[in-house]
Design a protein that fits this description.
Structural class: alpha+beta
CATH class of the largest domain: Alpha Beta
CATH architecture of the largest domain: Alpha-Beta Complex
Number of strands: 18
Strand order of the largest sheet: 6-7-12-13-10-9-8
Radius of gyration: 23 Å
Distance between the termini: 57 Å
CATH topology of the largest domain: Aminoglycoside 3'-phosphotransferase, Chain: A, domain 2
Largest sheet: 7 strands, antiparallel
Helix content: 25-40%
């Protein structure tokens, strides 16, 4: 089969599968047209596959590009041969071909150019890699990650945007300096030229031995919370606070590179933050009105409005590059009982330029506190015993306090005031960023997981001093 000539049929045949994937980020819009933009046929050991970049057009809003590597399989059916489509990233032969492109920094030239590029001088040897157990990591992510030979993670970006990818930019920055050891080393990237500009489609990075992500680790621990493991879990959350501060110290350490050099948080930055929170409030009104009565919506918005002045508490501190989408799922619980921080692409629904903006490091702190709240809410779902539920709620209060104490004790070693030093200013500024994150979560849950919307809603209620309704 001529894949290039059949590309329209192939991508439309895969359409229903694509829109059902976790990495597909446009579920809230109606897809109208899918058309291939770049198609590179690849024959590997007799298997037909293709690197496809497709353009997606919707009923409203901008078009999107998605990277969809496809494998063409043959299956016997009633004496005939039927061609079926599969995700090429589930095929070890394709994975081997894709990763070994780094051996000679492969370039594929055609209507578009693809290039495998190394980022470190001590790039690991490509010989003798065992692809037998290469597997896609089953995790809720906006990309697809493949574990290879206990040595590498191949990360494939599904939704493509032109310009500098913050995940790779920050990964390369931290790898090149080597002072913060709690992130995977970034070895190389795969890029495609679209509209005359290089766009990252994949990366190869260090595999860090781990026991799973922080979400699975903590929710498992909370579901089995007892006097024996309570302190250990709190101490671990405190360690996570220390590692979070360590990341921020590393990202603020360059006083020369314009892209990473810390900048003062100004009055205008405070006004911009207030504007973003108001924007999130306005975007959530319609969805909330379908679940709450008008007085409740008004009360929520009024309560949040009273917090907005806290943004000015950040003036005098500094804004830096940050993780941007920081939560338990963006951490790994390592085999030695530590944490590794991963995935620096920022919030997937925001434009690339916005994700690269400098902001208060407290944005990440707010994100992790919201994630701890989600973990607690998840554990409480299965519990009916009042004492058990109260034990977990008490744990959350102590864990939050330990996280913040460890964070502040570490981040204060910066040569610049990355966060407000005063207790009141710190809390007021943090609350505004928690409100921004919780409102973002409300919008996300309304579009993707409506049954979960009560979690960020209750977080907003607590911030605004509004009683939480009984379940």
């Amino acid at each position: 089969m001529d894949i290039a000539n059949r590309a329209d049929d192939i991508i439309n045949q895969a359409r229903s599968w694509i829109v059902s994937q976790r990495w597909y980020g446009d579920k809230a819009r109606t897809l109208e047209i899918v058309e291939p933009e770049s198609v590179v046929p690849v024959a590997i050991d007799g298997k037909e596959s293709a690197l496809i970049v497709a353009r997606f057009t919707y009923d409203v809003g901008p078009e999107r590009r998605y990277f969809v590597p496809i494998l063409i399989e043959e299956a016997a059916r009633q004496g005939e041969t039927e061609r079926q489509l599969a995700d090429a990233l589930r095929d070890r032969t394709f994975i081997r071909w894709f990763v070994q492109g780094f051996a000679d920094e492969r370039t594929l030239a055609g209507e578009t150019q693809w290039h495998w590029r190394r980022l470190v001088e001590d790039f690991p040897a490509m010989a003798n890699i065992d692809f037998t157990n290469a597997r896609v990591i089953a995790a809720e992510q906006s990309n697809t990650s493949v574990a290879i030979d206990g040595r590498f993670i191949g990360k494939v970006f599904r939704k493509l945007e032109s310009g500098i990818n913050p995940d790779l930019e920050i990964g390369e920055f931290l790898t090149s300096r080597g002072q913060f050891r709690h992130v995977p080393r970034l070895y190389g990237v795969v890029e495609v030229v679209l509209d005359g500009e290089s766009t990252a489609v994949a990366a190869l990075q260090q595999f860090v031995p781990n026991e799973g992500d922080g979400w699975r680790w903590l929710t498992t621990g909370l579901c089995n919370l007892n006097d024996g493991n309570r302190t250990d879990l709190i101490d671990a959350v405190a360690l996570l606070g220390e590692r979070t501060a360590g990341l921020h110290l590393a990202l603020a350490d360059d006083l020369v590179d314009d892209e990473f050099m810390p900048e003062p948080f100004t009055d205008q930055d405070a006004e911009d933050l207030i504007g973003r929170v108001i924007g999130e409030m306005e975007e959530s009104v319609e969805g909330l009105a379908q679940r709450l009565n008008p007085p409740e919506v008004e009360r929520l918005h009024k309560g949040l409005g009273m917090l907005m002045g806290g943004a000015r508490s950040l003036v005098g501190s500094y804004k830096t590059r940050v993780h941007g989408d920081y939560h338990l799922g963006q951490t790994l619980r390592t085999v030695d009982g530590d944490f590794c921080l991963i995935d620096f692409e920022g919030e997937p629904s925001r434009p690339m330029s916005q994700r690269r903006m400098k902001t208060s490091p407290l944005k990440d702190v707010a994100g992790m506190l919201r994630s701890l709240d989600y973990a607690v809410a998840s554990a409480l779902v299965a519990m009916t015993d009042g004492e058990e539920r109260q034990r977990i709620c008490d744990w959350q209060e102590d864990a939050n306090a330990s996280f913040l104490t460890a964070y502040r004790d570490t981040v204060k070693h910066s040569q610049l005031p990355l966060v407000p030093p005063g207790d009141l200013e710190f809390r007021n500024g943090l609350n505004v960023l928690i409100a921004e994150k919780a409102l973002y979560e409300v919008r996300y849950e309304l579009n993707n997981r409506p049954d979960w919307v009560s979690i960020p809603l209750n977080g907003i209620r607590r911030l605004a001093g509004i009683p939480i309704p009984e379940a």
